[in-house]
Amino acid sequence: MTSHIKMIPELSKESVSMRDPQRVEETLNSMRQAGPNTLQVISDFDMTLTRFAHNGKRCPTCHNILDNSKLISEECKAKLKDLLNTYYPIEIDSSRSVDEKLPLMVEWWTKAHDLLVQQQIRKDRLAIVVEESDAMLRDGYRQFFDHLRDQDVPLLIFSAGIGDVLEEVIRQAGVFHPNIKVFSNYMDFDESGVLRAFKGELIHIYNKREGALLNTGHFQELRARHNVLLLGDSLGDLTMADGVQNLENILKIGYLNDKVEERKQSYLNTYDIVLVKDETLDVPNAILSYITGSQ
Ligand SMILES: Nc1ccn([C@@H]2O[C@H](COP(=O)(O)O)[C@@H](O)[C@H]2O)c(=O)n1
Ligand SMILES: [Mg+2]
């Protein structure tokens, strides 16, 4: 191992694999030299910032928080569970191409959102169901969110989950800081606070990218930030930085949570650093401290 990598002991954890340590070495060096003013962090949410499992039990996604809650009738819960059992295995099937999976993923999201809309979900109940859920941010989350805020580094969260639920998870954890921008599926409530639709174009796992922000105000403040730390858990998350203008360096960290043996090679081929069954933010935290010169 060469010097920059050696200076980050977390990269020697058993959970860490790298296809090309030399590339990681060079990227870390360039990003550290450029400093925090040139950095933006682009992250997925479900199963990247949140835990995949805790004490051997699966943790919920934003959708699952609602699906399993008291806001949903038993009949509807059964239908949502059937959808999960049908489509999640397709989402993580490494033998199918993106072209094959994409229409099926759109079908899953569309059917699930239609069912949720039929449930007359009240906006003022969301905080309670998040509080009652088993959702958990990964260990080390406070250091991650607070460090980015303290260093004035923008954190862009691109999630195919549900924005209202996602925001509530990070708000209840006390880390919804002003440097965070969330791009996700937001609920549209009527004047009495009842869910009537989802706003805008559907965001699913294969259409998340910063290029979509080109004409928004958010894009302006990112103009000078040519270095990206990207965090994801799905191969669809790899495109999140597409459209970053004058990209200079990008370091991609991928959480491999499920079906490890089948998927490890494809993660190694596409992510710079792969974290296998690692429920912590230790590696991103150590890398951020290193890049921003706070270690
Ligand atoms: N009805 C659905 C649809 C999707 N999911 C899961 O949500 C994840 C997407 O959220 P990200 O923050 O990771 O973009 C995705 O991986 C699906 O497994 C769901 O649980 N229910
Ligand atoms: Mg995810």
From TrEMBL:
<dbReference type="GO" id="GO:0009117">
    <property type="term" value="P:nucleotide metabolic process"/>
</dbReference>
<comment type="function">
    <text>Specifically hydrolyzes 7-methylguanosine monophosphate (m(7)GMP) to 7-methylguanosine and inorganic phosphate. The specific activity for m(7)GMP may protect cells against undesired salvage of m(7)GMP and its incorporation into nucleic acids. Also has weak activity for CMP. UMP and purine nucleotides are poor substrates.</text>
</comment>
<dbReference type="GO" id="GO:0008253">
    <property type="term" value="F:5'-nucleotidase activity"/>
</dbReference>
<keyword id="KW-0546">Nucleotide metabolism</keyword>
<keyword id="KW-0479">Metal-binding</keyword>
<dbReference type="GO" id="GO:0005737">
    <property type="term" value="C:cytoplasm"/>
</dbReference>
<dbReference type="InterPro" id="IPR036412">
    <property type="entry name" value="HAD-like_sf"/>
</dbReference>
<comment type="subunit">
    <text>Monomer.</text>
</comment>
<dbReference type="GO" id="GO:0000287">
    <property type="term" value="F:magnesium ion binding"/>
</dbReference>
<keyword id="KW-0460">Magnesium</keyword>
<dbReference type="InterPro" id="IPR023214">
    <property type="entry name" value="HAD_sf"/>
</dbReference>
<dbReference type="GO" id="GO:0000166">
    <property type="term" value="F:nucleotide binding"/>
</dbReference>
<comment type="similarity">
    <text>Belongs to the pyrimidine 5'-nucleotidase family.</text>
</comment>
<dbReference type="InterPro" id="IPR006434">
    <property type="entry name" value="Pyrimidine_nucleotidase_eu"/>
</dbReference>
<keyword id="KW-0378">Hydrolase</keyword>
<keyword id="KW-0547">Nucleotide-binding</keyword>
<protein>
    <recommendedName>
        <fullName>5'-nucleotidase</fullName>
        <ecNumber>3.1.3.5</ecNumber>
    </recommendedName>
</protein>
<dbReference type="Pfam" id="PF05822">
    <property type="entry name" value="UMPH-1"/>
</dbReference>
<keyword id="KW-0963">Cytoplasm</keyword>
